[in-house]
Amino acid sequence: MAAQRTAGGGGTGPVNGKGVLLAAALCAVILTVTGVLVAVLPEPEQEGHRLPALARSHGIDLGVAVAVDPLDRDRRYRGLVEDHYTSVTAENTMKWEHVQPERGEYDWSGPDAVVDFAADNGLGVRGHTMLWHNQQPAWLAEGDWDAEELSAVVHEHVTTVMERYRGRIGAWDVINEPLEDGGPQMRRNLWYEVLGPDYIARTLYSAHAADPDAALYINEFGIESAGPKADALYDLVAGLVERGVPVHGVGFQSHFVHGNVPDDLAEQMRRYTDLGLEVAVSELDVRVDAPVTDEDLREQRQEYHDVLAACLEVEGCVNVTVWGVTDAHSWIPEWFPGTDAALPFDTAYRPKPALSGMVDALSRRGRRPGPARGARPRPPGAAP
Ligand code: G3I
Predict the structure, then answer these.
(1) Which residues does the annotated region (Disordered) include (predicted)?
(2) 158, 287: one domain
């Protein structure tokens, strides 16, 4: 049997002809030409177009972090999102410094753009993020707060934002990175210093009251593998569940280093699903030391595959989100100089082997009966 690739190329443009491309890519097309079977294999980007249908067939969302500016101006960027993903997370624009830059003055332009884009394209939205020690506006970070006033400010912010997007944002990272970078101690952030450790439960109650249907997450990094920080977050979350605090999910950020992707991610996730929570891979990337070689990218393909496979192993893992659309938009080169190439599309918007790795993982047989998209299991005893 002769195999040939379809002609044509690097286009990753908008959704025109999406149905045709999808159909072409669903499987190798077998043509009969004068009695000879010819398998026409899908182009990598066409293969990537299978991702939304594949993700949905497993009952999970495959998401991507988006920035407002390229979403607005860059047709190819938009096309990559529309063609390959089923949910979006706002990479920055829903953070406190952007949403409430001055006290009492909300800027909805960025969040609205993301939520409207998602609605226009049938994508889910993960809200990111309410309480975080980074990207706070100066009035908040530098304020001279007592507990009563800060508590009121938090309640108002959470309530205002969540009520505005009620019914349009399915899950929120309400608490982001509550543990110290190296763990296992609770992070001494503004909230902890002024309100004490119970700031977490109180904020979750505010969030639940504002949108009772949203899945409320605690989102953390460095918990993807066994260790003191993973245990500390587990103890924190298990304590909240035991008290009946409305927490519904744990986000495993998953900012991985090539060659060091943990092999016990599924095991760590299961600890939470055993509590009745859902879990998500919320900020996936796999950074590679420069100069990046073809071999690195082949290995990275397997690493992306393995992360998707870990999620599929765990009933209750509902979302895998990659942290940026292309390597040109990734936070990695700025924050980790000397590393690069962390995402499934390169700086020229071309698909990398990592994209095929995700397709492979999602193409496997024996699909689990995962929760339907939007299903939000509640922990036992959570407030109604
Ligand atoms: O706000 C300025 C803007 O005024 C200026 O014009 C622009 C010029 O470059 O920079 C803007 O700030 C950038 C900001 O993102 C945009 O809101 C910062 O330089 C940049 O460092 C900042 O980085 C973001 C980072 O969070 C901040 O901590 C990354 O894009 C974003 O990917 C990253 O995301 C976090 C998650 O929210 C939580 N988990 C960790 C993850 C990586 O740090």
Answers:
(1) 360-384
(2) yes
pLDDT digits (tens, 9 = 90+) for 86-109: 999 999 999 999 999 999 999 999
Residue of higher predicted confidence among 40 and 234: 234
Same structural domain for residues 31 and 48?
A: no
Coil/strand/helix, residue 138: helix
Q: How far apart are CA 357 and CA 363, in angstroms?
A: 10
Segment 304-354, tens digit of pLDDT: 999 999 999 999 999 999 999 999 999 999 999 999 999 999 999 999 999
Which residue, by CA, sits nearest to atom 16 of ligand 1?
A: 92
Band of pLDDT at residue 366, cut at 50, 70 and 90: low
Task: Assess if residue 171 is contained within a domain.
Answer: yes
Residues 116 and 23 occupy one common structural domain: no
* 25 to 10, 40, 155, 246, 353: CA distances (angstroms): 15, 9, 48, 42, 16
Residue 149 domain boundaries: 43-363
Report the domain count for the chain: 2
Atom 30 of ligand 1 has which residue's CA nearest to it? Answer: 331
Q: Assess whether 51 and 65 both reside in one domain.
A: yes
Pocket flag, ligand 1, residue 219 (CB < 6 Å): no
Question: Among 259, 303, 263, which residue's Cα sits nearest to residue 284?
Answer: 303
Q: How far apart are CA 263 and CA 80, in angstroms?
A: 29
